[in-house]
Target: Protein tas
Amino acid sequence: MKYNTLPNTNLKVSTICLGTMTFGNQNTEVEAHSQLDFAIEKGINFIDTAEMYPIGGNEHIFGSTERFIGSWIQKIGQSKRENIILATKIAGPNRGMAYIRQPLNFSKKSIHQAVNLSLKNLQTDYIDLYQMHWPERIMNMFGQRGLSKIDEQWKDSIFDILTVFDELIKEGKIKHLGVSNENPWGVMRFLMQSEKHNLPKIATIQNPYSLLNRLFEVGLSEICMRENIGLLAYSPLGFGFLTGKHLNGIRTNSRLELFPNFTRYTNENCYKATKLYQDLAQDLGLTVTELALAFVNHQQFVTSTIIGATSIDQLEENINAFDVMLTDAVLSEINKIQELIPNPAP
Model:
C-alpha cells in the first residue's frame, strides 16, 4: 500500500480510502466489520463516511453507517483507532432529508449538532477530517449541466462557517476540514476567507472523478495543485458502471437498480464509452475495473481514491487494481476515447 500526505496536515493516508455508504442498507453490521477488517489488513488506513449514510437512507436507518463504524472501533480498541484516519461529512440543504435535522444548513447550531452526533455514533473523541457534503448555495452538481439562476436569498456565510470549525478544531473535536461536491468559485472563497482571517484552510475536496467524468480536470485540478488541496476522488467506477457488468442491462439489486436517481450513469453515451474502455482494457490484458481505477490513481492531484464494495471479493478486486501502472501510450488511448465521448456522466 502506498501513502500520501493529506495536504496541509501531518497525516499520512493510504492512496485507497474505504467508502462505506452501503453499510446499513446493502451491507449488514457483520459484513461492514468484515470489510473494515479486510481493508486494514491490506494497509488501508483511511475511512470515509457521512452522517446521512447509508445511501438510500430514510429516517429509520440514517446514521447506521457511522454507528457500524463506531461499533467496529469499539471492537478493535481505542489504541488502534489512533492509526486510522476517519473522515465524515455534514449534510447540506435541499436534498429532501428533513429527517436528519431541521433546518439542514451550516449554521453554528447545526454544525455543533452534527459533529456531536457523529462523535457519538462513531464512538470516538475526534474526527480526523470533517467535510461539508455539498454546498448550502444553489449550484450545478449531481449531474446538472449549467446554472440557470443563482440563489438570491443565499447569504455568503463562509467566514462564519470557518469560524465555527476553528472553534471545533481548538476544542479537539475535529482535526482538519474539507469540502465536497464543490466548484472552483466555492473552493476559492473558502481559501480567500481562510487566508484573510487566519482561519483553518481546507485540506481536501471530495468530488466525482472517473473515466466517465473528468470535469475536475478543468479548473479544480489546477487549484488543487497550486493551493495544495487534495482530491478525494469518489465514484471512480462511475457508480459501478465502469466494472462493465451493466453493459447488457442494469444488474438486479445493483446500486443502479436500487437507486434510480443516479441516471446520469446510465445514458447511452455511458454505455458507448464504457464499451470502448472495456475493449481497450481487454487489449491490455486488464479488466475495465483495473483500467478505470489505475487511471484515477495515476493523477497527480488525487490524494486518495474512495472505493466502496458490497462484498469482500469486490473490495479485493478493487484494491488489487491499484498495482496497475499505465504507460503514456495507454493514457493517450484513453484520451482518444474521452475526446470522442467527453464526460458522459457529469
Remarks:
- The longest strand covers residues 174-180.
- The chain has a mean pLDDT of 94.
